[in-house]
Design goal:
Blueprint lengths: L18 H5 L15 H12 L2 H4 E9 L3 E8 L5 E8 L6 H10 L8 E6 L3 E6 L5 E2 H7 L5 H20 L2 E2 L8 E3 L9 E3 L6 E2 L13 H4 L2 H27 L12 H10 L14 H10 L10 H5 L2 H4 L15 H16 L13 H15 L1
Antiparallel strand pairs: 1-2, 2-3, 3-5, 4-5, 6-8, 7-10, 8-9
Helix pairs in contact: 6-8, 8-10, 9-13
Length: 375
């Protein structure tokens, strides 16, 4: 016979935030704590116990340096194949989210492929395919003959990839031109890669579990959804900056590297940018319309990735002009202006401190105190 005991909830967690849909309200056997650990931690532990990065790869010259990491070229000792390795300081940043995103979505043809992961205790080594074709925007600005039709094809490929990520609940949050590269020198759409997911985020339920697209609205707090929507709108804004620059050869909010962060942020905040005269004379009305809607100052009115893909300038790209765009021929100025723009956006602005009594919480407590005293 069965003992008469009260039933308590299992200390385990469901396999996903939408588990009640899977089990239709019935009980289930919770997965063990070990199985709930991030996939990335499993791989890191695997390599830590078997080999070190230097056992398998020869490290070469620097490719790029960031706030939390450094990227170098490396060569596999056994095969002679070239790769890139991103070395992330664990003291400065937890790379588990980036690793997990690359493991889940790196099989997409236009997302950088993660080949291997190592952890030596102080740093994590992410081995990826080597981007031999360089930055997409650099390559485009060096082209003497570049048309709207080509620009539309490039935007389609990138936006289609971003839409895929957004549908999966992933926002990149750092889609600056230096993170969109070519894997080879062909310049084909198939060789475009979105890279560096160091600031990317996955949509999670309140218990920390990943969300699938189907049941998001039922499990995520409204403010989290709002933040996710804002981050997605920021991705589209970045693509709008890229499109503006591809069409004209200059950036919408910075004139050059000498512009101050305050000047750039003021222009961005105003939402004002020019779409008339000069180099814009050779650009179609449809292209201008798309740029204006991607750079809309209000993120709620900005186009989504899906809406960009359905815009006539994208869907009817085979009918766009083939003639060469009249663009500013100064790639070095564009690179400096673009760097200044994203540096201004990413800088940490110190908060303005006010007396404690001015805070919303203090004012609310003050109202309650007055009310209770009156009673």
């Amino acid at each position: 016979c069965f003992a008469y005991l009260y039933v308590f909830y299992s200390p385990g967690v469901p396999p996903s935030a939408n588990a009640h849909q899977l089990f239709r309200g019935f009980s289930f056997v919770a997965i063990t704590e070990e199985e709930t650990q991030p996939v990335s931690n499993t791989i890191v532990q695997l390599h830590r116990s078997t080999s070190q990065f230097s056992d398998t790869y020869d490290i070469k010259e620097d490719i790029g340096v960031g706030s939390y990491s450094i990227c170098k070229r490396c060569v596999h000792k056994g095969t002679g194949m070239e790769y890139a390795v991103k070395i992330i300081s664990k003291a400065k940043r937890d790379p588990s989210e980036e690793v997990e995103i690359l493991l889940r979505y790196g099989q997409h043809p236009n997302i950088i492929t993660l080949k291997d992961v190592y952890d030596d205790g102080r740093s994590v080594y992410l081995v990826t395919e080597l981007m031999k074709g360089g930055e997409l925007l650099d390559k485009i600005l060096r082209q003497k003959f570049f048309s709207e039709r080509e620009a539309s094809a490039v935007l389609y490929t990138i936006t289609k990839t971003v839409e895929y990520l957004h549908v999966q609940g992933v926002v990149h949050r750092d889609l600056k031109p230096s993170n969109i590269l070519y894997v080879d020198e062909s310049g084909n759409a198939e060789s475009i890669r979105i890279c560096d997911f160091g600031f990317a985020k996955q949509l999670r339920a309140e218990n920390g579990l990943l969300m699938t697209p189907c049941y998001t609205a039922n499990f995520v707090a409204p403010e989290v959804l709002k933040k996710q929507g804002y981050d997605a709108a920021c991705d589209i804004w970045s693509l709008g900056v890229l499109l503006y620059t591809m069409l004209t050869g200059f950036t919408p909010f910075a004139n050059g590297p000498e512009d101050t962060p305050e000047e750039i942020l003021a222009r961005i905040g105003s939402g004002k940018f020019s779409l008339t005269g000069g180099y814009w004379n050779s650009v179609s009305t449809e292209a201008k319309d798309l740029v204006s809607k991607m750079l809309h100052v209000d993120p709620h009115q900005r186009l989504t990735a899906g809406q960009v893909l359905r815009h006539p300038w994208v869907t009817h790209r085979d009918q766009l002009p083939k003639y060469t765009l009249n663009r500013q021929d100064a790639p070095h100025l564009v690179k400096g202006a673009m760097a200044a723009t994203y540096s201004a956006l990413n800088r940490n602005v110190p908060p303005v401190l006010e007396p404690v009594g001015c805070s919303t919480l203090a004012q609310r407590r003050g109202v309650k105190k007055i009310t209770s005293t009156a009673l």
